[in-house]
Design brief:
mainly beta, Methylamine Dehydrogenase, Chain H, four-stranded antiparallel beta sheet
């Protein structure tokens, strides 16, 4: 079994609401982690040097979502004051600011090719949920399709061309906090996390739940408020490992595309881990070794 290296950065008294990351090998001078905070601040770290590269105030209210727009070298943020703000992350100049919602902006998704930011309502409204929309995500296979997770307990799949959902996935017994797409082979799936303490894997083309992942003891929101991160085998859906770094609740979880690095945002810090697995007899094993830990 190969060891898993982790790089740890802890920040006291910071509640991390979202993390994002990118790895632009040619056009960017650093490999960055983007974190948005309850304090209304956004931070960018170089994850190789573990140095804070940028930190700037976005709003007086919590910033619940932030995303890189790497092709423009921009950061887009969504806050509880209902505003979307876009910044140049080299100069920290504000590029744009506009009111984009009638409530807290809980999730921001950036279209992969078009100049669209999905927040639930902006230039175009998509209505169908009976409660707060907690997260939205564009499909990696079809840039005109996106999914939404809501506290009404459902997941809806939409097309940009229609204000009504294409269909609804119903299976959680409580509110759904997070949603994302992942590829299993060449086929796309959805995975959701819920207040019913479970995560579910959906074959959304067949409109069915293929697996329920259990084991958390509190609300699942990307990982869980119980402080645990569970790592599952995407092929067998078996639990491979459970991580708990003692940084209290987990609020955000980000995977780097094309990499086995994972960024975790807690009440009291961020952690990056590098996940290396070995398969033996159909089971997956993962070991995590802390490489460095810094206190503030």
């Amino acid at each position: 079994m190969h060891p898993t290296r982790s790089r740890v950065r802890k920040r006291n008294n910071m509640r991390f609401l979202a993390v994002d990351s990118h790895d632009e090998r040619e056009s960017q001078p650093f490999k960055g982690i983007l974190a948005s905070l309850y304090s209304g601040t956004v931070c960018i770290w170089n994850y190789h040097s573990q140095e804070l590269v940028k930190s700037f105030k976005v709003a007086e209210s919590p910033v619940r979502s932030a995303k890189f727009i790497a092709c423009k070298q921009w950061v887009v943020t969504g806050a509880d004051d209902k505003f979307i703000r876009i910044f140049d992350y080299n100069t920290m100049e504000k590029i744009a600011e506009f009111e984009a919602h009638t409530d807290f902006i809980r999730s921001v998704a950036v279209h992969p090719t078009l100049p669209y930011v999905l927040v639930g309502s902006a230039l175009k409204r998509f209505k169908g949920h009976a409660h707060y929309v907690m997260q939205v995500a564009f499909s990696p296979k079809d840039a005109h399709t996106f999914a939404s997770a809501s506290l009404d307990g459902t997941i809806k799949v939409w097309n940009l061309s229609s204000p009504a959902p294409d269909f609804t996935l119903d299976g959680h017994s409580k509110g759904v906090n997070c949603i994302d797409y992942f590829m299993r082979g060449s086929k796309p799936y959805l995975i959701s996390g819920s207040d019913d303490h479970t995560a579910k894997v959906w074959d959304y083309q067949a409109k069915s739940c293929v697996q329920t992942l259990e084991g958390h003891t509190n609300n699942v929101s990307a990982s869980s408020e119980d402080g645990n991160v569970h790592i599952w085998d995407g092929a067998t859906y078996r639990l491979g490992n459970t991580l708990n770094y003692g940084f209290e609740r987990v609020w955000a979880f980000g995977c780097m595309k094309g990499s086995n690095r994972v960024v975790i945002g807690y009440d009291k810090g961020t952690i990056m881990i590098k996940v290396l697995s070995s398969h033996s007899g159909g089971s997956m094993g993962i070991r995590v070794e802390e490489q460095e830990k810094k206190e503030c």
